[in-house]
Design brief:
The protein is mainly alpha-helical. It has one domain (15-299). The protein has helices at residues 2-34, 41-66, 68-73, 75-96, 102-109, 112-124, 130-147, 162-181, 190-214, 223-251, 253-258, 262-274, 281-297, 304-308. α1 (2-34) packs across α12 (262-274). The two termini are 23 Å apart. The relative contact order is 0.21. Keywords: Membrane, Transmembrane, Transmembrane helix.
C-alpha cells in the first residue's frame, strides 16, 4: 500500500511546486499593498530576507558547507540570480507599488512568462513549442480578462505612472533569474543554494536600506505590520522560492514561468475571501483561460532543445 501512495506523492509534488509559489506571491502582493504606508520599501525587502535566512540557515548550513567549492565555481550565476530574482525583484516591486495601481501591477506581472520566452529566444536560442505558444496566449488572455474586468475596451484607459516603469524592470529581472536558475547544476543542495542567494541579496540590499534611513524615512511598527512582515518573510520568500526552484528544474523555465499567470487568479480568490469582494462572470472566464493555458503548455514534455537551446544545462524530465 505504501508504494502507490509514494508514487502519487512523487507525481503531485512537481505540480504543488508549480502552483503554490503563485499563491504565496499573491499573498505577498496583498501584504505589500497593505503595508505600503507603514513600512518603507527597503525595510520591507531587507526584513523579508533576514527572516527568510533565519528560517533557512539551520537546515541549509550543512549543504552550504558541502557545496562551498561549487558555489565558487558558479559564483557569477549565483550572484546574478541573487541580485535579479531576490534583491532587485522584491525591492523594485515594493517601490513600484507605492505609485502604481493594483491593476497596472497585475498587468505588468503577467508579462513575466512572455519576457522569459523572449529573453530565452534572444539570448539562449530557446525554441517555443506549439503547446507552450498556445498556453502562453491563453493564459495571457485570461490575465487581461481579470485585469480589464471582462471589458476589453478598457485597455485604452490604462494610464502609466513612474511605478509602472519600476515594476517593468522588476519583471525583466525575474525573467533572467528564471533563465539563470535553470543553468545551476541540479546536484547543488537547493536549501543551501537558496540560503546562499538570500545571504548575497541581503548584502546587496543593506546599503540601499542605510541610504533610505539616511533620507529620513521611517517604518511605523504595529502588530499588523509585524505580522505581515513575518508572512512575507516565510511564505513568499522561503516556501515560494524553494518550490519555484524545483518547478524550474522539473518543467523548465518557460513552463514554470507560465505559472506566474496564476498570481492574479489567487489574488482574486484571496480578495474575495479576505476582503469580501464580489466574484463576477469575468473572474470565472479569466481563471478558466489561465487554467487552459497551463494545461496546454504541459500536455506533452518538450524536447531538451525546446527548453534550453545551447545553454548546456540538462533538461530534467523527471523530478530530482
Amino acid at each position: 500500500m505504501s508504494r502507490p501512495d509514494s508514487s502519487l506523492a512523487t507525481r503531485l509534488l512537481p505540480w504543488a511546486a508549480l502552483l503554490l509559489p503563485s499563491l504565496f506571491w499573491a499573498g505577498n502582493f496583498i501584504a505589500g499593498r497593505a503595508m505600503r504606508d507603514a513600512v518603507t520599501p527597503m525595510t520591507l525587502a531587507l526584513g523579508r530576507w533576514l527572516i527568510a535566512l533565519a528560517c533557512l540557515l539551520p537546515f541549509a548550513w550543512r549543504g552550504m558547507r558541502r557545496d562551498a567549492r561549487r558555489y565558487l565555481a558558479h559564483r557569477w550565476l549565483i550572484l546574478g540570480t541573487a541580485v535579479t530574482g531576490v534583491a532587485a525583484f522584491s525591492s523594485l516591486v515594493y517601490v513600484g507599488l507605492h505609485t502604481t495601481t493594483a491593476s497596472n501591477g497585475l498587468l505588468l506581472n503577467s508579462l513575466i512568462p512572455l519576457l522569459i520566452v523572449l529573453a530565452g529566444a534572444v539570448f539562449y536560442r530557446q525554441r517555443l513549442t506549439l503547446g507552450q505558444g498556445v498556453g502562453l496566449a491563453l493564459s495571457f488572455a485570461g490575465v487581461l480578462t481579470l485585469v480589464l474586468q471582462g471589458q476589453w475596451t478598457q485597455w485604452r484607459q490604462v494610464s502609466l505612472v513612474p511605478g509602472d516603469g519600476i515594476l517593468l524592470v522588476a519583471m525583466v529581472c525575474f525573467a533572467f533569474y528564471t533563465l539563470w536558475l535553470r543553468q545551476l547544476p541540479p546536484e547543488l543542495d537547493r536549501l543551501g543554494l537558496t540560503a546562499t542567494q538570500i545571504a548575497v541579496a541581503i548584502l546587496v540590499l543593506l546599503p540601499f536600506w542605510l541610504a533610505e534611513r539616511a533620507g529620513g524615512t521611517r517604518t511605523e511598527w504595529t502588530l499588523a505590520s509585524g505580522a505581515a512582515l513575518a508572512y512575507v518573510g516565510i511564505f513568499p520568500s522561503v516556501g515560494a522560492y524553494l518550490l519555484y526552484t524545483r518547478a524550474v528544474q522539473h518543467f523548465g523555465p518557460a513552463r514554470a514561468g507560465l505559472s506566474i499567470h496564476l498570481i492574479p487568479v489567487f489574488g482574486v480568490v484571496l480578495s474575495a475571501l479576505l476582503l469580501h469582494e464580489r466574484l463576477h462572470a469575468w473572474h470565472a472566464a479569466g481563471i478558466a483561460a489561465i487554467a487552459a493555458g497551463l494545461v496546454c503548455s504541459n500536455l506533452a514534455p518538450a524536447r531538451p532543445g525546446a527548453l534550453i537551446g545551447k545553454t548546456g544545462a540538462p533538461a530534467p524530465d523527471k523530478p530530482r
